Every structure is written in structure tokens, then in C-alpha cells.
């Protein structure tokens, strides 16, 4: 970490988190989050470990905390059942949810943690930034939007290929164990699927970083968080009157992906609807209706 980058701070040799934060506070240019960022890297004094901790913790905390509202919704059917998409099905049992948590934790620790440790050297190789200051909001929003569209395209074609017999049996079958998905099932998949589809999330920032030298780790963290939220919401099984798809018609949301699990064929994209509409792979009765009206 370049401790002097755009700051007047020199790298201290040692210190507690609190002491280092006090030093970071001497620089009036730094925001609260930037001070924490500087403190974290100075404290660990090893950028590979510091990046690994931020990335892994962000992934775990965001994934499981975003699942909590859906666990609550399933626990109170009298309040939330009317928003359930497959409303004739019983909510997942506590046992089913716990089994899902255990499987996902195993995937996170065995498959994702080693890849996360490798992320820092990979990020440096591709020219991604992690020094201060953070990127401005406009750059962050623009790059995240690009990542959403590129990932959706990659996801559509790879997911469609996963439904080809041999690949389905070898890779994708695990994810379809639940025909009535719930939030936690978003990352319930075989290790191969986690790695192959995960490349669609991590690849675009690396390629853009390589081409422009203008991608920051903070943008990657925001993008991965939003992509996690999208996947969890798409598997939630609930469609609310305030769901994003109602204000942004291109957005698929749970209404779209739930049909993929229910009818098994069609709706292969992750975030948006356009690929399925263009390629004539819209799932269920909605797809049949579209074909009839053509
Ligand atoms: Zn599928
Ligand atoms: Zn799914």
C-alpha cells in the first residue's frame, strides 16, 4: 500500500487499530470510510492479508445479513405469504434452511476462501487500484452498470449451456435441488458452478482494470455486494409491490428467476430480461404467451 498517496501520512511501523485511526484522522481530506481503509491496511502491514480479510468478511457479512429479511418473511407466513410467488407451496423448514447454510459455508471456506487469498496478486497483475482516495460516485456507478450488463450476458449463455444434459448432470443439478427457492439458495451450487459462474462477476472488473487502469477495489466490493443482493433477492420467492422490477422493467428479479426454478427451462439470465426475450427462452406460460402473440 502506498501510504503517502494523496495523503500526508507516513506508514507507521506498529500500532493498535485505534492508534492508527487517530493518525489517519490527522488528514482532513479523508472520509470516514477512507480513514478505516487506511487504518486497516496500515494495521496488517501486509496487503495480501488486508485485502483478503476485507473481501472475505464483506462476502460473509453481506450474504448472510441480506438473507435475514427473507428468513423472517418465511417465519411469519400470516404477514408475508400473500407476497409469495409459488403461494401453494409451504415455506422452507428450519432444517432445510440450516442444511443450506452449512453447505454454503463449506463452499465459502473450501472453494472461495483460497480464491479470495489469490485475489490481491491477481488484482495487482491486472492493474486494479486500492490506494486512496476512493473513486468518485460517477465512476463507481458507471463501472458497476457495465459489470451488471456484461455479467448478465456471460451468465445467460453459460447458464443455458449448463442445461445441456451432460453439463446439467455434472455441474448444475445441485442448484436445481430447490424448485421453490428461498434467499439462502442463491449460492447453493456445485463448486464447479461457483467457480465458472463466479468468473462472470470477477472477470469484468479485472478486464476493465487491465484495459483502463481505472478500476478500484472499492468499486469491485460494491459491485460484488450488489450482485450478491441481486442473486439473493432473485431466489427469495417473494415479489413485493415495491420490487425493483416494477420501476425498472428490464430487471428480472424474483418474479423472473423463480419461474426458472419452477419450470426448469427458460429465464437463464441473472439480472435482466433482454437476453431471454431476444432469444425466445422466456420460461413458463409467460413464454408461451409471447410466442403465440408473435
Ligand atoms: Zn438453471
Ligand atoms: Zn437459481
Automatic annotation (TrEMBL):
Residues 145-281 form the Fatty acid hydroxylase domain. InterPro entries: Fatty_acid_hydroxylase (IPR006694), Sterol_Desaturase_Related (IPR050307). Pfam families: FA_hydroxylase. GO terms for cellular component: membrane. GO terms for molecular function: iron ion binding; oxidoreductase activity. The chain crosses the membrane at residues 103-123, 207-226. Keywords: Membrane, Transmembrane, Transmembrane helix. GO terms for biological process: lipid biosynthetic process. It is found in: Membrane. Its main location: membrane. PANTHER family: STEROL DESATURASE. This is Fatty acid hydroxylase domain-containing protein. The lineage of its organism: Eukaryota, Fungi, Dikarya, Ascomycota, Pezizomycotina.
Amino acid at each position: 500500500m502506498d501510504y503517502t498517496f494523496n495523503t500526508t501520512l507516513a506508514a507507521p511501523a506498529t500500532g493498535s487499530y485505534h492508534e492508527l485511526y487517530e493518525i489517519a484522522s490527522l488528514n482532513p481530506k479523508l472520509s470516514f470510510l477512507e480513514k478505516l481503509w487506511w487504518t486497516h491496511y496500515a494495521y496488517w502491514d501486509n496487503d495480501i492479508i488486508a485485502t483478503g480479510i476485507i473481501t472475505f468478511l464483506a462476502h460473509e457479512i453481506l450474504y448472510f445479513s441480506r438473507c435475514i429479511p427473507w428468513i423472517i418473511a418465511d417465519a411469519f407466513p400470516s404477514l408475508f405469504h400473500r407476497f409469495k410467488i409459488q403461494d401453494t407451496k409451504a415455506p422452507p423448514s428450519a432444517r432445510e434452511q440450516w442444511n443450506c447454510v452449512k453447505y454454503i459455508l463449506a463452499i465459502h471456506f473450501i472453494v472461495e476462501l483460497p480464491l479470495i487469498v489469490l485475489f490481491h496478486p491477481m488484482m495487482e497483475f491486472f492493474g486494479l487500484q486500492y490506494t486512496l482516495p476512493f473513486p468518485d460516485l460517477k465512476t463507481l456507478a458507471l463501472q458497476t452498470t457495465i459489470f451488471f450488463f456484461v455479467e448478465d450476458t456471460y451468465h445467460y449463455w453459460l447458464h443455458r449451456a449448463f442445461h445441456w444434459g451432460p453439463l446439467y448432470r455434472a455441474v448444475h443439478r445441485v442448484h436445481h435441488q430447490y424448485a421453490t427457492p428461498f434467499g439462502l439458495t442463491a449460492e447453493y451450487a456445485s463448486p464447479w458452478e461457483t467457480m465458472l459462474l463466479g468468473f462472470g462477476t470477477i472477470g469484468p472488473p479485472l478486464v476493465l482494470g487491465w484495459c483502463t487502469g481505472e478500476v478500484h477495489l472499492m468499486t469491485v466490493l460494491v459491485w460484488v455486494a450488489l450482485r450478491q443482493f441481486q442473486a439473493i433477492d432473485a431466489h427469495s420467492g417473494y415479489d413485493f409491490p415495491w420490487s425493483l422490477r416494477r420501476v425498472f422493467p428490464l430487471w428480472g428479479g424474483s418474479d423472473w428467476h423463480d419461474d426458472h426454478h419452477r419450470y426448469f427451462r427458460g429465464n437463464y439470465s441473472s439480472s435482466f430480461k433482454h437476453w431471454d426475450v431476444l432469444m425466445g427462452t422466456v420460461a413458463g406460460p409467460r413464454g408461451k404467451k409471447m410466442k403465440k402473440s408473435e
